[in-house]
Amino acid sequence: MNALELLKQDHRKVKDLLSELDSTSEGDAGRREELFSTVKDELKVHEIIEEEILYPALKEHPKAREIVLEGIEEHNVVDTLLGDMVSLSVEDETWAAKLAVMKENVEHHIEEEEEEMFEKAQDIFGDDELAAMGAKMQERKKSAESEVKG
Ligand SMILES: [Fe+2]
Ligand SMILES: [Fe+2]
After folding, report:
1. What percent of the chain has pLDDT over 70?
2. Distance 28 CA to ligand 1 centre (A)
3. Of 73, 82, 134, 137, which residue is 20 to 30 A from 91 by alpha carbon distance?
4. Ligand 1 centroid from CA 54, angstroms
5. How far does the centroid of ligand 2 lie from the alpha carbon of residue 113, in Å?
6. Residue 47: nearest ligand to its CA?
7. Rounded to the nearest whole angstrom, what is the distance from the C-alpha of residue 7 to the centroid of ligand 2?
């Protein structure tokens, strides 16, 4: 799987998990906590492979620099919301408000990556480079998963 395919596969998974999480109710705190923990870990691992492998390579290219810098800031916003949510009860109404904002941010970010950033990456890198990056990501994903889950 090449790097862009791998990242898009992660995106589908995160979007599905967020929709599922969004449909849980306050009364089902156990399920909410479980899904939240899964989506949080998925997002962290995904950010790690993007920020360590795709973004630095892409940032070297002037036509992609701005979108990469924006992408990093968008990751930071999501990380802040995730951090806030960890310290709140899933039954808190503020938690649900933060989830709604986090979901919107993630969806917007995914759209921008797929429609703008990945298009640029496709132009900049050759098939061999994208394949090599994909292999590197697959490898890094394994170690990142254990780091994130602690
Ligand atoms: Fe991203
Ligand atoms: Fe992404």
Report:
1. 100
2. 29
3. 73
4. 10
5. 6
6. 1
7. 6
CA of 27 to the centre of ligand 1 (A): 31
- Ligand 2 centroid–CA 106 distance in Å is 9
**CA 27 to ligand 2 centroid distance, Å:** 31
- The model's pTM: 0.96
What Cα–Cα distance (Å) separates residue 100 from each residue in 73, 95, 97, 150? 19, 9, 5, 27
Domains in the chain: ranges and CATH: 3-149 (1.20.120.520)
Residues 11-26: tens digit of each pLDDT? 999 999 999 999 998 8
What are 39-87's pLDDT values in tens digits?
999 999 999 999 999 999 999 999 999 999 999 999 999 999 999 999 9
The reported pLDDT for the residue numbered 150 is 76
Q: What pLDDT score was predicted for residue 26?
A: 85
Ligand 2 centre distance from Cα of residue 17 (Å):
15
For residue 68, the ligand closest to its alpha carbon is 1
Cα 8 from Cα 106, distance rounded (Å): 13
d(CA 3, CA 66): 20
CA distances from 146 to 10, 23, 115, 141, 143 (A): 17, 28, 31, 9, 5
